[in-house]
Design brief:
Number of strands: 0
Largest sheet: none
Radius of gyration: 18 Å
Order of helices and strands: HHHHH
């Protein structure tokens, strides 16, 4: 992953977390998983799991798989459940013009 050889790779991996800024309109979502797949090419699955969710689960003492089984939390399964959700890109200007969930005090900053 581009870590200098003098570093303890395990310590680095156990202190990393990925994020895609969802649900903000400038997020990589819904294409984040595909982008991560390219970035993680050649990285062991165990390290990918730590970076994508395992570390956050440990840090926040939260087990999302107690709510939904792991097999229902894959990208494919979650996308299948959310077919009614609009995941298309919305620019901040469009949100300002429509007034969708953006503070009106920010309107002048997006031009």
């Amino acid at each position: 992953m581009g870590v200098p050889p003098s570093w303890d790779v395990r310590a680095v991996v156990e202190n990393m977390a990925g994020e895609c800024d969802y649900p903000h309109s400038d997020a990589d979502w819904p294409n984040c998983p595909e982008g991560l797949a390219v970035q993680f090419e050649g990285v062991p699955d165990a390290e990918i799991d730590l970076i994508t969710h395992g570390n956050a689960m440990r840090w926040f003492s939260y087990d999302p798989f107690s709510v939904l089984p792991r097999e229902e939390c894959t990208v494919g399964a979650l996308r299948a459940k959310a077919t009614d959700v609009d995941t298309s890109f919305h620019s901040p200007r469009r949100l300002t013009q429509r007034g969708d969930g953006i503070d009106v005090s920010l309107q002048g900053r997006w031009r």
